[in-house]
Design goal:
heterodimer; A: Rossmann fold; 5-stranded parallel β-sheet; two-stranded antiparallel ribbon; 4 helices; globular; B: alpha/beta; Rossmann fold; 6-stranded parallel β-sheet
Chain lengths: 154, 206
């Protein structure tokens, strides 16, 4: 199962024309997803795809809001990992799911790109993802060229 | 005038913690506080932003970023600048994290710096505070009380230092702090013990 979280407007999302398997789950701004559902989904998926506008070198408010909703999915217990404190991850698929972060937006500065890369990797470590892939595109249409998303385009 | 923006800093001992610890060091400076919410009076905040000589943002950091409400607010501020609003204030940040290392707020700090660049606001100085959940522990042992006191003092000193930077409107190097009196392992142990206790109470109540 793949979970796709995006902040695209309905029109842009339709234009993108992504095709999904029955099991795949899409979380968008127009859809209301309960906190518990998000926790469960992120805890049980094989791939987590985040399609986000790059906002000041980080995720957009919507994507950040979704990630914050997973707060209960890890914590309140802490553990030591890589010499730093991190929240304990409760789900069974830790170290098994891959994370793909697709940032889009024109005029993304080099500093913002670097910051977004570091945040993505750091979030991958926090969620205990198996690996993190980060890509940047100027426009939403260019997402079609993304290798990591090629399985969604017929 | 100093504008203090409360970005929902739950991890501070209480919501007024940052303000009260900085207030005395700001001396006769007028201090206005505003809480960042979805329903905040934007026109009023806009007026404050224009009049302020220093802006202090205090916020919690989860997953290496400030909350979505704060990000939305920053975007609104940037849009206001694009629309002709002039903000001549210097921007200071106080970021709190539950994790032990204050350094874990540095990515969120970079995000705020990027915002300042976009909105043409001068960056002042950032203070990243780790280990904020320590003092909320309700353990009543005298030893713990002593440690708790030290912890509060430890944060206070740095907040007051930040207040001096705000008062003088000077720029400085970002500082990241953690409770040095408590080791990382001890902190994890304390937090986990407290979480277990809360869980037990919840189960009993259910």
């Amino acid at each position: 199962m793949k979970v796709i979280v995006h902040d695209l407007q309905e029109k842009s999302w339709q234009v993108l024309g992504m095709q999904f398997h029955e099991k795949d789950i899409v979380i968008g701004e127009s859809m209301e997803t309960a906190e518990k559902d998000i926790e469960k989904l992120i805890g049980s998926c094989r791939q987590l795809v985040l399609i986000s506008r790059c906002v000041y070198g980080g995720f957009s408010p919507f994507i950040q809001g979704v990630l914050n909703k997973c707060r209960r999915h890890f914590g309140p217990f802490l553990e030591m990992r890589h010499g730093q404190t991190h929240y304990q991850v409760h789900n069974g698929n830790k170290n098994e799911f891959g994370m793909v972060c697709c940032f889009y937006g024109d005029q993304i500065t080099a500093k913002e790109e670097q910051s977004a890369r570091i945040q993505s990797v750091s979030d991958g470590i926090s969620l205990q993802a198996r690996g993190v892939k980060i890509v940047f595109y100027n426009t939403v249409d260019e997402l079609k060229n993304c290798k990591e998303l090629s399985s969604f385009f017929a | 005038m100093v504008l203090f923006l409360d970005g929902g800093c739950v991890l501070a001992r209480n919501q007024d913690f940052s303000v009260s610890s900085m207030r005395s060091y700001l001396q006769q400076e007028e201090l206005i506080t505003a809480k960042i919410t979805e329903n905040m009076d934007w026109n009023k905040v806009c007026r404050y932003l224009e009049e302020a000589q220093a802006i202090v943002l205090a916020a919690d950091v989860y997953l290496d970023s400030v909350s979505s409400e704060v990000l939305r607010f920053l975007e609104k501020v940037e849009q206001a600048v694009i629309d002709g609003e002039s903000i001549g204030a210097t921007f200071y940040a106080v970021l709190y994290t539950e994790l032990y290392e204050g350094e874990q707020t540095c990515i969120a700090m970079e995000i705020l710096k990027n915002f300042c660049l976009r909105a043409n606001i001068t960056w002042g100085r950032g203070l990243g505070i780790g280990g904020n959940n320590l003092e909320t522990d309700s353990d009543k042992s005298s030893l713990w009380k002593r440690m708790r006191k030290q912890m509060v003092d430890f944060r206070l000193g740095f907040l007051q230092e930040q207040a001096l930077f705000v008062r003088e409107r000077i720029q400085g190097t970002d500082v990241y702090i953690h409770p040095k009196e408590v080791s990382r392992k001890a902190y994890i142990r304390k937090i986990n013990r407290r979480a277990k206790k809360i869980n037990r109470v919840k189960i009993a109540q259910n």
